[in-house]
Amino acid sequence: MIRILTALQPSGILHIGNLFGAIEPMVRLQAEKSENLLFIVDYHAITVPQDPAQLRRNILFATATYLAVGIDPEKTILFQQSRISEHTELAWILNCLVHMGELERMTQYKDKARGKGESVSVGLFDYPVLMAADILLYDTNIVPVGEDQKQHVELARDLAERFNSRFGETFVIPQPQIRKEGARIMGLDDPEKKMSKSAPSEKNYISLMDDEATVLKKIKSAVTDSGSTISYEQNRPGLANLLTIYSLVTEKSIDQIVAEYEDKGYGDFKIGLAGAVSAYLTPIQEKINGFLKDERSLLAILDQGATRAKTIAAKKMELIREKIGVRL
């Protein structure tokens, strides 16, 4: 059976880029004949300073969000990374195989470390190795990711092949799966860069919890261009991004949307888009708030997921320990 794995950091903000790039594809995969794992990478989150109480709330919020958008814990193993100690154990072993130059070439590290000098944490530098451990521990076949994470999956592939070459066949070689449409939702204020919750301005993203007025305000201020017609063109990245979002929240084709606004301008288009986004988000928000009122049920679901994940991870680590010679 094919095993598919994906993960997101817990933060107080999950935006529509997270939803359509990572979570929604996992919901669709539940209908396939695959074994699916979705987990909350809380140890990745602490590569930057976190308030402990807020981090705990964020973990619960992420769990509620996954459930609200359709993740079924009976069909998907939903769990918390830190509950499975094998993740960090395997990361240490992989640290002894990875080369400094490989980590120094990681684009995301270079972006996040820029301007921080020697104050940047070792964890931020090393987290691609923990991500590789996350993937390889479960003999993952497919990792749905955005374009920005493909490089990390390629590192996991390299480390799996290196380990297999040195110690014998042990790891499945994972494949990145990049969604062709909607995998990379761009920032509303800068359509040349991916939508990000860490962007300097809240106008960059649409949070899953933004109310109707906030959504309208953000979309009205979204960067477009000096054109007057609604059309999808690569040289008009701002409008192309908004059309992609419109298509995703309505499940209409971009051609259909363009036809609807054939004789209308940006003003009508943005108001229509804002209404469509809010109509899409409102029922999700109601479900999230409902799940958050029942913390005990959220914890029970994470407990169940951790038990299932631990069974797979513990068995794999026994094999890995034997392979490297530390199991007596």
* Biggest beta sheet attributes: 3 strands, parallel
By DSSP, the count of extended strands is 5
The fold-level CATH name of the largest domain is: Rossmann fold
Mean pLDDT: 91
Indicate the low-confidence ranges by residue numbers: none
Question: What's the structural domain tally?
Answer: 2
User: How many helices in DSSP terms?
Assistant: 13
Order of helices and strands: EHEHHEHHHHEHEHHHHH
Helix proportion of residues, in percent? 40-55%
β content, as a range? Answer: 5-15%
CATH-scheme architecture of the largest domain: 3-Layer(aba) Sandwich
Shape: globular
- CATH homology-level superfamily of the largest domain: HUPs
The whole-angstrom Rg is: 21 Å
CA-CA gap between termini: 32 Å
Query: Would you tell me the structural class of the helices and strands?
Result: mainly alpha
Strands of the widest sheet, in order across it, are: 1-2-3
Please outline what is shown here.
With 328 residues, this protein is mainly alpha-helical. The chain folds into two domains: 2-177 and 295-324, Rossmann fold, CATH 3.40.50; 202-289, Orthogonal Bundle (Tyrosyl-Transfer RNA Synthetase), CATH 1.10.240.10.
Q: What does this protein structure show overall?
A:
The chain has two domains: 2-177 and 295-324, HUPs (Rossmann fold, 3-Layer(aba) Sandwich); 202-289, Tyrosyl-Transfer RNA Synthetase. The protein is built from 13 helices and five strands. The two termini are 32 Å apart. The chain is globular. Helices cover 54% and strands 8% of the residues. A three-stranded parallel sheet has the order 1-2-3. A two-stranded parallel sheet has the order 4-5. It is mainly alpha-helical. The mean pLDDT is 91. Helix 7 packs across helix 8 (150-167). Helix 1 links the parallel strand 1 and strand 2 (34-40).
